[in-house]
Amino acid sequence: MEVSFSKEIESLRLKSGETFHGEGILAITKALLQSGVAYVGGYQGAPVSHLLDVMVQAKPYMDELGVHVEACSNEASAAAMLGASIHYPLRGAVTWKSIVGTNVAADALSNLSSPGVLGGALIVVGEDYGEGASVIQERTHAYALKSTMCLLDPRPDLGKMVEMVEHGFRLSETSNMPAILELRIRACHVRGSFECKDNQPPAISKRQLMEEPAAFDYAKLAHPPVTFRHEKLKTEERIPAARRYIVEQQLNELMDGPRKDLGIIVQGGIYNSLIRALQQFGLCDAFGQSEIPLLVLNVTYPLVPEQVAGFALGKRAVLVVEEGQPEYIEQEIATFLRRRDINTPLHGKDMLPMGGEYSVEVVAAGLAAFVARYAADVDTNSATGWLQGNAERRNAVGTQIAAQLNQPLPVRPPGFCIGCPERPVFSALKLAQQDVGPVHIAADIGCHAFGTFAPFSFGHSILGYGMSLASRAGVSPMMARRTLSIMGDGGFWHNGLLTGVQSALFNGDDAVLLIFKNGYTSATGTQDIISTPSDDAKFNASDKLQSLTATNTTIEKTLTGLGIQWLRTVHTYEVEEMRQTLNEAFTTDFNGLKVIIAEGECQLERQRRIKPWLAGLLKNGKRVVRVKYGVDEDICNGDHACIRLSGCPTLTLKDNPDPLKVDPVATVIDGCVGCGLCGANAHAATLCPSFYRAEVIQNPNWHERLLGSVRGALVRAMQTT
Amino acid sequence: MNMNQQKPITLLICALGGEGGGVLTEWLVDIARASGYAAQSTSIPGVAQRTGATTYYLEVFPVPLADLGGKRPVFSLNPVPGALDGLISSELLETARQVGNGMASPQRTLVISSSSRTLTTAERMVPGDGRTDPAPLLQAIGAQSRATQVFDMGEMAKNCGTVVSAVMLGAIAGSGLLPFSRQAYEDAIRHGGRGAEASLRGFDRAFAQVNIQQAQTALVSRLLSEQELPASIIQGLEADLSHIFPAPVHEMLGLGHARMLEYQGPDYADLYVERLQQVLRAEQEADPAAAQGYATTREMARWLALWMAFDDIVRVADLKSSASRWQRVSGEVKAGADDLLQVYDHFKPGAPEFAALLPVKLAAHVTRWDRQRVARGKAPWALPLKIGTHSVFGMLSLRLLASLKWLRVRGSRFATEQSLIEQWLSGVVRGTQTHWQLGHEIALCGRLIKGYGSTNERGKDNLMHVLQHLATGATFASNDLRAAAIAQAREAALADEAGKALDQTLEQHGAPARPVKAQPIRWMENPHRKPRAARAS
């Protein structure tokens, strides 16, 4: 795993009276333990990976409490895990990245919500929406609505978030509905504090086993005819029970203010943005005391009609601040008001943008329209001046840059790490396409998706995690050339094995699948999977510099067992061999599914293993070989073809030291891990002869030293000055 | 100010993935807590951790918690454009990007930025020079901030043996933006444990740097007004040459002449001088008053030298086997005195490289053999070599190759290059005679010639195409327009490898696009067609 959480694990043990300091998602993790959770599961993904990572690393402590932790194979399996709470009074929590993970989990969520739960079931989703998001901009809210699950959207204050976790379980138990707790990216990474409570070991747990299974109860199945009854229960019993709890426990916060004729209803998660926006108009102080009364919805589904209607009643206008589209909350509030014949003007998406993240500036712009219309006495000069100033500055810089650079600023998307084992495969693919012509490339989710950026720009579609092979099923029969599907081992186990491989085999499809076997789900933080090199393999490896993915052949065995007949495993850094293998796959007479396994261990994991090992060797005066590549500045031709074939961050440019030449030369900067790609590319693509591989032998053996000195003398004698 | 109107201090931190921005932010929150202030940080690392750009955001309430009477400030999770007190960034382009997003304001924001650049892939992959000019970036930053502090954080971190986050912390502390004592910052670093001493060094340097405001302002104005690179020292130019050529040409001439001597010998250097004299005469005719300062002859001295000293295996072997090269590599890889250094050079000479050294007739045989090979669907013949330059055998091989200068002038490549050089040269001379600017632009096209193998071939093809179809051919309303078209084509040829931009430019000026090169394609048959084919037969 990418990060060690030893410090965080310590904070999970904090007791009542102590203060937790740290990130939002870790506070949530602590809150789960304070709530007496009995089992935890999930699938990694930003921004909630840390929840599961910490739990997995804290296994000894979890065992102490009797809490079961499961790293699920995908979100569907995590959601299905919540089935434990249907019959038994077990509190369970699972986590994943939304919207994508919720999509995958949808089937189990429907079947969980229909019978309902006895033990509290909480789904913590990282709402990857807005700035920095890596997924489609859709709302989890729709799932809460369609499956009738509670949706919590707490104010991003650590204390409130923790409290809402605890309430979430009780709300779930009171209403028999599973509850979703959504956390936006910045809320997951917010650093703050809260006062801890003691952790609660669950009453039923791995240490306190149940003797007997529950009695058979057909009503607990999601199967007709009981599903028709469930449908009625949802509206007649569960939602009313949830609403009672929400009101009794005051989960939504009513924050009064002197301008009682106005009101703002806001999702809890957007509260801080709203407060800062109000401050720009002088309508709120630094501590959140607003002049306009606020109704802060820490629970955004179900809404409580009486609460909302009561808030709106008698006001001149109410503004709903709701992020994302469609405006489910605003529509529901409108219905509540209309049914009660309350004619308070309702505003929301007419003043605020339909889509996009509700940053302070965006909320302030909407607020400006609201204030101008309903609070003419408020001096808005400073706020509107600020908004206008922002626009003017952006414009001024844009114009200046465009005039002087003749182009916008170059972008800087994320990319493959230094020494990433996946980069060489894209180099080989670039070369292979020079041989066979361009091919349709079905891309996938994972680090390899960075191949869609410069200098490669490969990939025609991305249909979901592990979906690449399935997504070419309609393309390849229509295409003169063979198509290529790219998948990571993470995607393969998450989904690709079944949706892609099985389907292609069953249909006898002619397709080429390239699987990146780097050993981990690297993009989400290098979590282990079933094909991760074992701890034994890592411990026993005599040369820890080596890629160890070859030691685990679960993928190969699975594919062979499934009936794959054309299977090649190529080490990723062998660019020429990879190029030839790709060419063979594209041109062979074999018409079935061809699988190339690109095997090379995630460089992040390798470095994590190598660094302490090397440090230990050096400390003990043992022999260590350090490899770095370099470019001879007087031989480099300044054409940068090597960069167009690699894109490695350490292969960059510097001024040409030759005063006759003007174009910058390539250079390898510090940080090069000596992965070997520069050399492999130089050969495979016949690049210029400027690349060299330098091996620095620290603490050489005596015979090496002797040979070195003899050699050195002879070589020096031959060198020209 | 009334406490309720008191605003939080806001700081946006911009860093690249892996630079320790997360640790820096954690330090700042810890320092605030230890100092008794309410603070909050957020970040959006996401996949930006993989070498992309990312930001961290910090808010600190300037009144100590103890004086707040139990009240808690509500902080923003998003940085608010135009409402930042500080913006600190480890990379110049990213600073400019955030300034372009409207983050900094001239009324409020102190911008502390590194002057160092981590080039983006888009900038690095351009065949010519795709690096963004830093001057407009610095200008934008200066114009959109209350005060600016720019220095090379990367270099400072490197010199102190630490990471850039420690330097950034020092800069934040030195700026006095946050109400914490220096001691509090240093304590946080010490608690960090590993590498604390180096971090403290970096912290101290940056702290001092940011405190010296005047020096900073001077640096910015210097960077902004930075002109040409400092003129390099003119090498000892032979007396007779300095008589023949005017002073503005001397520097390039000296470098070029020395390159010819090193590359081949005195005769070849004389040929160089003779060729350059043709250009000089033409330029003196076209511009008798030397209003252009002999710019064409000076540039021609550069490009002619580079083309005449074309890269081949003899030259590469010579360069790779010099003592200075060994020292350079040794320094680059930081080999210690007790370490053993082994250097392997990657070569892959193909049939053309060997044919180059053979006489024309023999070379034609080799080339034909290789072409037939390719036509049969095989890859062109090439010999991948990994030669240990540290080994006796490796060095011996290189010295042997380097000694083949005598063979070079007898080889087929030499003849080809000289003929192309002559064509270009006469193009420059004739162009100059027609119109000074025209000759100048053709001379500058020498920049298209560089490198080895296909890169070199492509450059020569492009130059010859421009020479044939733009320098002559194609009709233009004036010679100025013709010269401008050539300049545009040159820039286009350097923009992308495939030459799309060049073809567009050519067509735009009424010249034909470059002919499509024959390239063997390995066909693959869609199996779904096979039954049909079988039926047909």
Automatic annotation (TrEMBL), chain A:
GO terms for molecular function: metal ion binding; oxidoreductase activity; thiamine pyrophosphate binding. Residues 444-590 form the Thiamine pyrophosphate enzyme TPP-binding domain. Keywords: Metal-binding, Oxidoreductase. Coiled coil: none annotated. GO terms for biological process: small molecule metabolic process. SUPFAM superfamilies: 4Fe-4S ferredoxins, Thiamin diphosphate-binding fold (THDP-binding). Pfam families: TPP_enzyme_C. Signal peptide: none annotated. This is Indolepyruvate ferredoxin oxidoreductase subunit alpha. It comes from Polaromonas eurypsychrophila. The gene is iorA.
TrEMBL record, chain B:
It holds the Pfam family POR. The lineage of its organism: Bacteria, Pseudomonadati, Pseudomonadota, Betaproteobacteria, Burkholderiales. It comes from Polaromonas eurypsychrophila. This is Indolepyruvate oxidoreductase. Residues 17-207 form the Pyruvate/ketoisovalerate oxidoreductase catalytic domain. InterPro entries: DUF6537, Pyrv/ketoisovalerate_OxRed_cat, Pyrv_flavodox_OxRed_cen. GO terms for molecular function: oxidoreductase activity, acting on the aldehyde or oxo group of donors. Signal peptide: none annotated. The keyword Mitochondrion does not apply. Keywords: Oxidoreductase. The keyword Repeat does not apply. The gene is iorB. Residues 249-467 form the DUF6537 domain.
